[in-house]
Amino acid sequence: MNFSDFLHTKPIFERIATQARALGIPAYVVGGYVRDLVLKRPSKDIDIVCLGSGIALAEAVGKAAKVNVTVYQNFGTAMLRVDDPADGLIGVEFVGARKESYRADSRKPVVEDGTLQDDQNRRDLTINAMSISLNPDTFGELIDPFNGLTDLKRKIIRTPLAPDITFSDDPLRMMRAIRFATQLNFDIDADTFDGIIRMNDRIGIVSMERIIEELNKIILAPTPSYGFKLLYQAGLLQHLLPELVALKGVETVDGKGHKDNFYHTLQVLDNVAGRSNDLWLRWSALLHDIAKTQTKRFDKRVGWTFHGHEEVGARQVPNLFRRLKLPLNEHMKQVQKLVRLHMRPIPLVKDGITDSALRRLLFDAGPDLENLLTLCRADITSKNHDKVQRHLQRFDQVEQKLHDLEERDQLRNFQPVITGELIMETFGLKPSKEVGEIKVAVREAILDGTIPNRLDEAFPFMLDMGKKLGLTPRQTANSPSAGQS
Question: What is the pLDDT of residues 406-418, one digit of tens each?
Fold first, then answer.
């Protein structure tokens, strides 16, 4: 197979070939760009391997293209970005061909200069070990020593060398094999998968940062459950998320059993994936029932219960994020909130639900309301299709009520008009228990619908609450004029 016609349509390849020839350095397009070119998938990242200094070649190309080059001296790599008329901004990374291996107890590879064959040998999968020549006498020719082209056509994930060698050299390749199978909807070759099973405990030498990068890509795949089932069957998930694995299985007492919460969770994750590409919403789906193992109880009258699993699960989220090296920022807080609230909308499908209950959900969900409703819809699972449709129709009604109430009361970003500063100024207080009690009382009254969230109505309520606590307003504290808000 020859790609010379395609390469001639991309000025960057002509430029690399010209500079490589001038330096006397053979150069090749390798890895994912070649794979995606065969699959006709868009790609914004080009990897160039040369038999010499990748940095020198990058600097020569950068000078010719008049673009800046970023050099990573410690890694022997360099990168530049070029603007392609068809594809927009493209990243091009240059590296010299090398051999790379890991010691038995080390997370850092031993790297040596090597040949093109050495470089292809160290690739994780046959479909990523193909290259295209940029050299004058073989320009555009596909170099495919491990029949990656055949594996692409057969939709097979396979290692270029014996699996134990490939995975021992870099155990992250086990995660990558499963990640590519999930993204491309390919099967994993039986010998390769058996190798993952044999080597799964070696994942422990890989940094969590590298692992979580692959796990996030699995979560963002079109059908992420496929990847998680593979991770479980290979024994990797037990090392990464034992809390999720603990959900697997069905226990039966007195003829009453509960659903398998592991497979339920994966179904919810797939359901969310069909509605949203938000990584953190998908993490919320993955963790929403994470505490059901700890909260599972059997009651002879009602059967199996998981009371409070949402609160226990929410409390686990920060520790899980910390262990998995996920960001401990607003994304973690969003996941924690959605795990905590995912049961709240369910009772609202009942007839006669009060505006007060709806207001409280709007207040607690705030800007995450849409994500919460998406998660709740995804959480409606059953083998009975008609049952699912009935629940979803009732949930439509709840969602409409919430939107109608939000439009009327503007509670999505609700903040009570009575602030702590106003309370302290009115009663001459410093930060104290009394200030908190008054704030809570005002907020609850607004959410109950006792008073509107208007200063002219809330201020007298605040004064009454202060008097009940034995507080006296300052002489200057006068109730706002009517109509002020």
Answer: 777 665 566 788 8
Please indicate, yes or no, if residue 246 is contained in any of the structural domains: no
Evaluate whether residue 248 is within a structural domain: no
CATH number at residue 406: 1.10.3210
> Region 266-285: what's the mean pLDDT?
97
3-state DSSP percent of the chain in helix, strand and coil, to 5: 55, 15, 30
Does residue 245 fall inside a structural domain?
no
Task: Specify whether 222 is located in the same domain as 277.
Answer: no
Q: Residue 461 sits in which domain range?
A: 415-485
Those residues whose C-beta lies under 8 Å from the C-beta of residue 217, and which sit 6 or more positions away, are: 179, 183
Report CA 379 to chain centroid distance, whole Å.
Answer: 18
As a whole number of angstroms, the distance between CA 244 and CA 224 comes to 14
262 and 390 assigned to the same domain: yes
- 72 strand-pairing partners: 77
Tokens 């008609």 map to which residue?
Answer: 386
pTM here is 0.87
Burial 7-16 (b: 16+ CB within 10 A, else e): beebebbebb
Residue with tokens 């295209």: 132
One DSSP character per residue, 355-423 reads: HHHHHHHHHHHGGGHHHHHHHHHHT---S-HHHHHHHHHHHHHHHHHHHHHHHHH--TT---SS-HHHH
